[in-house]
Design brief:
Low-confidence stretches: none
Distance between the termini: 46 Å
Number of helices: 9
Strand content: 25-35%
Mean pLDDT: 92
Shape: globular
Number of strands: 12
Radius of gyration: 18 Å
Order of helices and strands: HHEEHHEHEHEEEEHEHEHEE
Strand order of the largest sheet: 5-4-3-9-10-12-11
Length: 263
């Protein structure tokens, strides 16, 4: 781990209520993997060897998603669809900042990370919680994916198993599949998408029409060769999404949209 990452990690840990025991344990027992973090009434499990430090811990202590909350208005408890949920950081962020939640549907690709996701959400949220160990794709199919203990960079495009990784067969589902099963005709107040490049596949197919019923969308767009936001924005505009003004300190890869059909 680089010195820069160590300093960043220390700054993140310092924002938690139990920062002193966390720092002491990390210093005296560096091989310890599992930690419980406490922040604004939520308490969640992190596996540092499973890459969770870039999940809930970072989500709760950075402006990544928090900066968008002041731009959202709700009439009551909300429905949340979290696609690429990692170990549950986004719903925990909402809960920690007083957003009342009616239902959370959280989708996570990695079976190992999924176990921590389910524990963290069911432990902390007093609402309906649905957790799915599945992959979001453009078309439903079975996927053979090579995965380790967990990483915020896990992708459906991970190929044959490498050192420290295992091959898993994961159910690939569409956004419409998830919505039809778990939201029926309900409004989805917030959808967060972070699926490591699979967003281009999703929005190149028609099977995301349920997002017409989504009020706000937060999505990380992973640019690369032949992949730019221009490949996705027209599909979002067609179903009503308009980009909101990004704050000056915004991560340029994270986009925030409001659905004009609700205005």
């Amino acid at each position: 781990m680089s010195l820069k990452n160590k300093i960043r990690g220390l700054k993140e840990i310092w924002q938690f209520e139990n920062r002193l025991p966390l720092i002491l344990t990390r210093t005296l027992f560096p091989r310890e993997r599992l930690y419980v973090y406490r922040y604004k009434g939520v308490e969640f499990l992190t596996d540092v060897a499973g890459g969770d430090a870039n999940g809930a811990r970072q989500v709760l202590t950075s402006p990544m998603y928090l900066r968008f909350l002041p731009q959202m208005t709700f009439d009551g408890p909300i429905n949340v669809l979290d696609i690429g949920a990692n170990n549950g950081g986004f719903p925990l962020l909402l809960a920690a900042h007083g957003v009342r939640i009616k239902k959370v549907v959280a989708v996570e690709l990695n079976p190992n990370t999924f176990l921590r996701l389910r524990f963290n959400l069911e432990r902390n949220l007093d609402c309906e919680v649905v957790t799915l160990n599945a992959a979001i794709c453009g078309e439903a199919r079975s996927l053979n994916v090579s995965l380790g203990e967990g990483s915020s960079g896990d992708s459906i495009y991970n190929g044959s198993s490498a050192s420290g990784r295992k091959a898993f067969e994961i159910e690939g589902v569409t956004v419409d599949d998830v919505c039809d099963r778990h939201f029926e005709r309900e409004t989805i107040d917030i959808c967060k998408i972070d699926i490591e490049g699979a967003e281009f596949e999703v929005f190149s197919h028609p099977l995301h029409e349920c997002l017409r019923r989504c009020r706000y969308l937060i999505m990380e767009i992973h640019e690369g060769e032949g992949r730019s936001p221009d490949k996705i924005l027209p599909a979002l505009a067609r179903i009503g999404f308009v980009p909101r003004l990004q704050p000056p300190d915004a991560d340029p890869a994270v986009f925030f949209f409001a659905n004009s059909n609700f205005e």
